[in-house]
What we know:
Layout: H1 2-22, E1 28-35, E2 40-43, H2 59-67, E3 72-80, E4 88-89, H3 94-100, E5 108-110, E6 120-122, H4 123-126, H5 137-140
Parallel strand pairs: 3-5
Antiparallel strand pairs: 1-2, 1-3, 3-4, 5-6
GO molecular function: cytidine deaminase activity
EC number: 3.5.4.5
Protein name: Cytidine deaminase
Amino acid sequence: MEQEKIIQQEMYKRATELILKRYPKGWGGAAVIHSEDGQYFTSVSIETANSSVDLCIEVGSMCEAHKYNVRVTHCLCVVRDDENSQFKVLSPCGVCQERLRFWGTDVKVGVTTPDNTLKFVSLNELQPYHWTNAYQPEELEHFQD
């Protein structure tokens, strides 16, 4: 359990440091993914003139994990409203939850809490009624090839 807390704290540290560096003023957001082999991948949201084509903050990190063919164990997204605001954790949106399920339901994700504490839960805990429960595991195997 101690190793789990170390990973989570390191992820938060990396996310907040990236926000401070990348977005010294105004809004800022960063994501960090931790992989089974101990790597950390960071990303930010792309900025476009047409917000309908924006991607979530976590997507770049997920793509890096796919590029290096490593299993994701944790995902965290942190934002702040401006340079004078507190950092806050954003739970992954439904689309990112679907993307993260590629690595299994035991992937731990940072979630939004009322008191803004750092908390991680598994996708399985976050999605107890996920649509894949209607299928046997072997019926879903071809999605992870």
